[in-house]
Amino acid sequence: MRRTISRKEMGDLLNLLKSDDVAERESATKDFKELGLRAVPTLIQATNSVNTKIRQGAIRILGHLNVQRAKQNFLKALDDDEKSVRLEALEALGNIDANDSLAELIKKLNDNSPEVRNKSILVISKFGEAAIPYLIQSLQSKDLLLSEAAIETLGEMGTNALPHLFSHMQSPLYAVREGIIESLGKIKNKDAVNYILHALTDDDQGVLEAAIEALGEIGEPSTAPYILPFIQSEHSSVRREVIQALGKLKCNSATPYLVHILQAEKNAFLRILAAESLGKISDLTAQKQLKITAESDTDKDVRQVAKEALDGIR
């Protein structure tokens, strides 16, 4: 038969949650878990405590007990001033049925704490396909941290996200198209190749650059001929993505173009990237120019990278 517990005893347990002694806090946590539903009203009230450790402990225990009726308390705690409380709230929401709270969870992707942002990605990923529409909507956010975290989360979801991503490839919003392509590059599934190739004709330069980068990440060699013409783009940022992608794809036919960049490109950073890509391609015909660059380029960083690339080919 379970013994009853007085209000005073419950209060004493709560006070132990704020103890500086870790063993005392863990003991109190264990006792609360054993009390189960009998402790829930006290713990829910404790989520509003002025003491950080009590709020944190109460949320942790309620999450462990999978207390659905504490959902609003968890959601409120997402905006707590203390990072430790926000982390516990995210963990708790990940333990309960919180599909209807996804919009609030998505907002934490732009939390000022990297730990909270990373935790948000893990928790949101637990909800699988239900989270995808919210994440895709977040791609258009003007908050760079939020949109980048949404891209990262969609990438973490892997192949399960592909049908949803494919269906939004023709979005009228360039930020959504660009974000989807970046996510596809992170998933690295070859089923996405044809969709990304189509994006090479996109009117938006950011979408084009994302497509080139994604094709390099996926690493399907047959896509190199589609990327190669963009090496002559007037935009250095486009050329940058092309140079790196061709190296990842180990495209031998790109060697003359990369050699020409070493010879004539004024932008030292692009010469560095060209040397790196030539090292990855390992085409023996590039050795002569790499040697010249390693010895006589005006930029010491270019000379160093060319030397390393040359050593890798020999």
Q: Tell me roughly what share of residues is in helical segments.
A: 55-70%
How would a textbook summarize the main sheet? none
- The number of domains is 3
Structural class: mainly alpha
Write down the oligomeric state. single chain
CATH topology tier name of the largest domain: Leucine-rich Repeat Variant
Report the radius of gyration as a whole number of Å. Answer: 27 Å
Distance between the termini: 79 Å
Low-confidence stretches: none
Sheet-strand content, in percent, reads under 5%
Order of helices and strands: HHHHHHHHHHHHHHHHHHHH
Return the CATH architecture of the largest domain: Alpha Horseshoe
Q: Number of helical runs? A: 20
Structure described in brief:
The protein is an all-alpha fold and about 325 residues long. Helix content is about 65%, strand content about 0%.
Strands, helices and their partners?
Layout: H1 7-16, H2 22-35, H3 40-46, H4 52-64, H5 71-77, H6 83-95, H7 102-107, H8 114-126, H9 132-138, H10 144-157, H11 162-167, H12 174-187, H13 193-198, H14 205-218, H15 224-227, H16 236-248, H17 255-264, H18 268-281, H19 287-296, H20 300-313
